[in-house]
UniProtKB/TrEMBL annotation:
Plays an olfactory role that is not restricted to pheromone sensitivity. PANTHER family: RE68569P, SCAVENGER RECEPTOR CLASS B TYPE-1 SR-B1. Pfam families: CD36. It comes from Anopheles albimanus. Its main location: membrane. One of its GO terms (molecular function) is scavenger receptor activity. This is Scavenger receptor class B. One of its GO terms (cellular component) is cytoplasm. Belongs to the CD36 family. Keywords: Cell membrane, Glycoprotein, Membrane, Transmembrane, Transmembrane helix.
Length: 478
């Protein structure tokens, strides 16, 4: 009987303490050499960026005034593998870890079809249009040498470039001139959108280790030493604390939880809302997250988003001004093909075809571990130009919104080795844990029942014997 009671007590204690969850929470914490820390430090996943360029098909006609609007066509994807890592790691005493991000890109010929980096297209001259936009707001004596150089070199706002030149830049006299006449603006010798987007040289970040809350491991504490981005005013727009860089999200996600996702190229943390919980990806339970509605409305619908208006100037709905994050270039982000943007934005050029099925972002996240099982993040980089009537060769580009490229950062799924490991952690071990708990309770109950039965039988036998003896004594007396 004692053994049965002991097994029942053990089973009950296991149910209360939940050793599987205790061990799982312990494994979520970052410690030097721990499994989850090593996975976060150098994620062994297939992470790609797909880049789609917008080739201008009527460049000569537009610049000559024979066409009212530019006509663009999408070309892509140019696929690169991103070898993401967290380097120069230091564990701090306050439950955080400091690191420098590293995101080198490697071109994937086999995934890019017939496209090659030396393909030639007619593309916007980012250096000229950016310098013209900035110089147009300066005095005559700043504009004059720039205009003179443009006339002498006959440089044009649209020019033939290879795909790689457009994405990664090439040395140009304009960047040197811009640095000379507009000091402290340009500190590099070439202008390329992907090159600038993946410039992490001076970045440093801190992330939570999961001490004391294991669910928060791998989430941002600070970026560049602060929980707030310097380019925005107000916590709603500037906060990146508790955001994920996509490596790991919050663990133990509840049905009403919202998440944050931050990448330097986005210039902000984007709020994620749940869009269904009844999903399974490669055998693992998943919750689908998407960007919240009206995230790029600049306060037109959600007044809180007014803080995304730069220097009090609000761009049309669907565009977010990220000039401060792209070295002063007149850059705005949108969703691909101006999805969800003010219809007037689409009128600037011909060729945009927004498609919700093709251009929306989604994340499939395991709600227990916070592990991303699949992700697809999509944004478009645009130039938003002001009045360029005072800049040589650029007059036709005044007050235009020009799409340059859109990109998709995507992870199609977990590699088999990592998937097998997490299926064991998230599916097999919990079942084994339940089997052990219920087996202890059941076996303890059986032992207790056997013991009670034995005691009952013993007592019944003793009662029968006593009754027989009593009868025999009674008969002998008579």
């Amino acid at each position: 009987m004692a053994a049965g009671f002991l097994l029942i007590i053990c089973g009950s204690v296991l149910h209360l303490l939940d050793p599987y969850m205790l061990i799982f929470k312990w494994k979520l914490k970052f410690e030097e050499g721990s499994e989850i820390f090593n996975l976060w430090r150098t994620p062994p996943v297939d992470l790609y960026i797909k880049i789609y360029l917008f080739n201008v098909t009527n460049a000569e006609d537009f610049m000559a005034g024979r066409a009212e609007k530019m006509q663009v066509e999408e070309v892509g994807p140019y696929v690169y593998r991103e070898l993401m890592s967290h380097d120069e790691i230091v564990f701090n005493d306050n439950g955080t870890v400091s690191t420098r991000p590293h995101h080198p890109l490697i071109f994937q010929k086999s995934l890019s079809g017939n496209l090659r980096e030396d393909d030639v297209f007619m593309m916007p001259n980012i250096a000229l249009l950016s310098i013209a936009h900035v110089a147009s707001k300066q005095g005559y004596f700043i504009r004059w040498p720039i205009n003179m150089l443009i006339r002498q070199t006959k440089i044009q706002p649209l020019e033939r470039q290879t795909a790689r030149e457009f994405m990664y830049g090439y040395p140009t006299t304009l960047t040197t001139l811009g640095n000379t006449f507009l000091p402290s603006w340009i500190s590099f010798d070439k202008v390329g959108l992907i090159d600038r987007m993946y410039d992490f040289d001076d970045d440093f970040e801190t992330f939570y280790t999961g001490e004391p809350s294991a669910s928060m491991s791998g989430l941002y504490d600070t970026y560049l030493g602060s929980p707030n981005l310097a380019q925005w005013n107000g916590r709603h727009c500037s906060n990146i604390r508790n955001a994920s860089d996509g490596t790991k999200f919050k663990s133990f996600i509840q049905p009403d939880d919202q998440l944050l996702f931050f990448r330097k190229s986005m210039c902000r943390a984007q709020r994620l809302i749940q869009n269904g919980t009844d999903y399974e990806v490669d055998g693992l339970k998943a919750t689908k997250f998407v960007f919240e509605d009206n995230a790029l409305d600049n306060g037109e619908i959600d007044p809180r988003n007014k803080c995304y208006c730069r220097e009090g100037h609000c761009l049309p709905r669907g565009l977010i001004d990220v000039t401060s994050c792209y070295y002063g270039f007149p850059i705005a982000l949108s969703y691909p093909h101006f999805l969800d943007a003010d219809p007037k934005v689409l009128e600037h050029v011909n060729g945009s075809r927004p498609d919700p099925l093709a251009h929306r972002t989604h994340f499939m996240i395991n709600p227990v571990s916070g592990l991303p099982l699949e992700l697809s993040v999509k944004f478009q980089i645009n130039m938003v130009l002001g009045d360029l009537s005072s800049m040589t060769n650029c007059e036709k580009f005044s007050n235009l919104v020009i799409p340059t490229l859109w990109f998709e950062i995507m992870m199609p799924g977990l590699p088999k080795t990592l998937l097998t490991r997490f299926i064991f952690y998230l599916k097999i071990l919990p079942v084994g844990d339940l089997v052990v708990k219920h087996s202890l309770l059941a076996f303890g109950g059986i032992l207790l029942l056997v013991a009670i039965t034995k005691v009952s039988m013993t007592l019944s036998s003793a009662y029968s014997s006593a009754y027989r003896i009593s009868n025999e004594l009674r008969e002998s007396l008579w």
